[in-house]
Amino acid sequence: MIELAYRNNPDLRVALLELEQSQAVLREARAALLPTVTLNGSVQGQNSQSSSFGATGLTTNEELALATSAQVNVTYNVYSSGQRQATIRTAEEQVRLSALEVERRQEVLRLNAINEYYDLQRSTEQIRISQAFVDEAERNLRDTRLREQVGIGTRFDVLRAEVQTANARQQLRQAQSDRQTAQRTLARRLNLPPSLNVIPVAVEIAGTWPLDLEESIVLAYQNRAELEQQLVQREIGEQQRRIALSALGPQVDLFATYGIQDVSTQNNRFTDSYSLGAQVSWTLFEGGAAAARAQQRELDIAIADRQFEETRNGIRLDVEQSYFSLQANLENIGTAELAVEQAEEALRLAILRFEAGVGTQLDVISAQADVTEAEVNLVDAQIGYNRALAALERATSNLPERYYEALPY
To answer: How confident is the model at residue 83 (pLDDT cuts 50, 70, 90)?
Structure first.
């Protein structure tokens, strides 16, 4: 299911496209390491006239010509006051940031898909439990009506059994509605057709967590993409500050030009020329705009530092909450399993006492409700444990390796 979510989810696909986009920006930035070569050419016709006095008087000569020219220009920036290097470094860090965003969205997608699967699993188990309660309530209603017909039961007992059966049927319909909603929610997350049903397996413990709380927190600090993203944002701010300050430094370019001109006349004139040189430009005053841009980037760095601290505190809280929830649900599972056994035994005894005439129908109805509640509590404890385990894996980014093999990049 997780691999299917990785392949189909539109949000993750958008993150992958953004990664490709940042890689294209990096290629564009690295193009500044190479010289720029341009070729210009033109073709034009021209007409020239000349007049002269001779023995025969004034003579006018008209000459038609076809002029062609071509020029090759080569320019290369040899010194940019650090702008070129900072631009490339910024693009590299942006690629890294996009890759981390892919990882973050992937982890969020995994957790959301798992929780929605558990919603479907819980609603399916709720249907099973509610159906069993309906069957038991209907059996009790039939027995109560028979007792009324033979004179050993009362109309009051029948009414109570009918109320219990109606309530059980209502709970079953609600559970069926919840399952349909959970089914569509998960199908939307996996980008599956509406007609395709996902059938969950029976509820069981998903696994165990091998680390203690402090080890889990350290693992989260080491692995979480969000923390590394803030460090990358800080580096991007530093490189952009250098780009802003480079506007105040000199820019040195080397250039070379070679040109050819051919005039097709009776004399066929052909000329060529070339030039080499260096060009230096230096902005002496621009009103403080570069310094203001650099200050903005310094503030971006300060913001990234504060966000790093806030993110780190939030990650620690996520780990602690997930860890405590895991421990609590693990204890609840043992308690709920014992409660189910006791509730089933209490129901068996209540039925025997009622059939022997020493118990009441209220005892049977209460015992049936206790069995249903105990089974629901057991399912909730098991699924709650699995949810906490998935949240703890998300909080520490400790994803199993098998989930990485099917990634589309």
So the answer is: very high
How far is 176 from 295, CA to CA, in rounded Å? 60
The letter for the amino acid at 272 is D
Residues 26, 32, 34, 39, CA torsion sign: positive
Q: Which residue has the tokens 């944002």?
A: 233
Judged against a pLDDT cut of 50, whether residue 401 lies above it is answered with no
From the list 133, 135, 110, the residue with the least C-alpha distance to 12 is 110
Is the model more confident about 345 or about 63? 345
Q: How confident is the model at residue 20 (pLDDT cuts 50, 70, 90)?
A: very high
According to the CATH classification, is domain 2-47+68-250+262-400 in 3.20.20.240?
no
Angle between helices 83-150 and 361-396 (to 10 degrees): 170
- CA 375 to CA 384: how far, in whole Å? 14
Burial of 62 (0-12, 13-18, 19+ CB in 10 A): exposed
Q: What is the DSSP letter of 165?
A: H
Give kind and range of the element (H or E) at residue 59: strand 57-79
Average pLDDT, integer, range 268-297: 87
176, two tokens: 């069926």
pLDDT tens profile 121-178: 999 999 999 998 899 888 888 888 888 888 877 888 889 889 989 999 999 999 999 9
Q: Supply φ then ψ for residue 187, to 5 degrees.
A: -60, -35
Average pLDDT (78-100) is: 93
pTM across the whole model? 0.80
CB 366 within 8 A of CB 343: no
* 46/65 Cα distance (integer angstroms): 5
Structure tokens at 278: 């260096």
Amino acid 17 reads: L
Out of 19-28, 278-287, 364-373, the most confident range is 19-28
CB neighbourhood size of 74 (10 A): 14
H helices present in 151-252, as ranges: 155-190, 213-223, 225-246
Confidence of residue 409 (pLDDT cuts 50, 70, 90): very low
pLDDT > 70 fraction of the chain, expressed in percent and rounded = 90
Taking Cα atoms as reference points, which of 139, 236, 219 lies closest to residue 396? Answer: 219
Please list, residue by residue across 200-235, b when 16 or more beta carbons sit within 10 angstroms of its beta carbon and e when fewer do.
beebeebeebeeeeeebbebbeebbbbbbbbbbbbb
Angle at 130 between CA 129 and CA 133, to 5 degrees: 90
